[in-house]
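step: validate -> pass
step: tokenize input -> pass
step: predict -> running
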Amino acid sequence: MEVEVKLRLPDSSTHQKLSDLLSPFHLQTLIQENIFFDGSNSELSSNRAVLRLRFYDVVSGCVLSLKAKPVISDGVSRVSELEEPFDPVLGRACVAEPWRLLGVSSSTLLKRVREEFGVGEQGFVCLGGFRNVRGVYEWKGLKLELDESNFDFGTCYELECESLNPEKDKKVLEGFLEENGLRYKYSEVSKFGVFKSGKLPE
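step: predict -> pass
step: emit ->
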């Protein structure tokens, strides 16, 4: 189970101000491309699950993830997540031809998807995706991720923090934002939810 605090920022100006404030604590910046898949007969989405390939810095790495049964409440996200490394060249081939995912025998995660969700011979369909620029920071013992997510219909900004004590850490982050006059709202949907809706959160 992945548990994260998710706070949505209203605009690029707020994102930039927060980035400047956190700059002394910067660890790395990741360029991510997220591509999603479902079964041809909606076998995953009908069970509130989705398969994702995430490519890092265009070609340097790739991770396959299965996310299921997400719940977001009061700025805290809880989602079942499994992931494993995936060959980026094979990943690109699967984006172009999703049927190839059925034939990847080396993947424990894909085997589980086929067995648990009953994805049959008709295989998978590619749903598309979005790009994300993620700044990673180590701040007061917390690992913060500052995201700029670029969808076809606009850009969304979000601060995330994976946490074992989300209510406590949320208060710390809210205090930091408020002290610095930075506006925010609790995220109400995941980035995938935003992507599927085809519009930015209000």
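step: describe -> The helical segments are 12-22, 88-96, 108-117, 166-179, 191-197.
step: cleanup -> pass
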